[in-house]
Amino acid sequence: MTVAIGDYANDEDLHHNCEIGKKATGASSAIAPGRGVFHTQSSGLWAITAAGSSGRTGIIPNKYPLNTDADATLQVETRKGTAMYVQAGGAIKPGGRCRPDALGKFIAAVAIDVTATVNEANVELALNSMDRPNEYWYEGHEGEGEGLANTPTDAALDEKIRVRIG
């Protein structure tokens, strides 16, 4: 069976309820399955993760009904321990920590360097970048990491990969 971006890695996760949240409506406001999103505290809306975003995060599942531009609500998977297929936004090492980028794809998570200009804003940004309520761990591509002889390989840009919400 071939999996799609936004699919669950196992059937047990598929049968649990997702969180239902609000999103913006209008042209190009639909969020594709498998994209990483964050909860905007000020508006109460879920949106594609932007640079410097902090707060709760989740993944849009490939689960009916999918959100459309006109929908004011959407499903978001936020449950810890859930493994899902997403799209890589760059290189990630097996077992490495990752996070959604500004397009909702997943990239390697690295600490933000605050040594150049130490000020309150930079320190706050660095703390938020490494202290999100949900963390994500790269497990491999489809079929990888499911036995000693099938070790995971590095992720590359636009590949379909499996991440676990930690």
Describe how the helices and strands are arranged.
Blueprint: H1 11-14, E1 19-23, E2 36-39, E3 45-48, E4 57-59, E5 73-76, E6 83-87, E7 97-100, E8 106-108, H2 120-130, E9 136-140, E10 160-165
Parallel strand pairs: 1-3
Antiparallel strand pairs: 1-5, 2-3, 2-4, 6-10, 7-8, 7-9, 9-10
Describe the protein.
This protein is mainly β. It has one domain (11-165). 9% of the residues lie in helices and 26% in strands. The strands form two sheets. Strands 4-2-3-1-5 form a five-stranded mixed beta sheet, with no helix packed on it. A five-stranded antiparallel beta sheet has the order 6-10-9-7-8, with no helix packed on it. Strand 7 (97-100) and strand 8 form a beta hairpin. The longest helix is centred in the last third of the chain and has 11 residues, at 120-130. The radius of gyration is 16 Å and the shape is globular. The protein starts with 10 loop residues before the first helix and ends with a strand.
How far apart are the termini? 26 Å
The 3D shape can be described as globular
Q: Please describe the biggest sheet, giving its number of strands, its sense, and whether it closes into a barrel.
A: 5 strands, mixed
State the helix count: 2
Q: How would you describe the oligomerization state of the chains in this entry?
A: single chain
- In what order do the strands lie side by side in the largest sheet? 4-2-3-1-5
Number of domains: 1
The chain-level mean pLDDT equals 85
**Helix amount:** under 10%
Q: Please give the number of β-strands.
A: 10
Order of helices and strands: HEEEEEEEEHEE
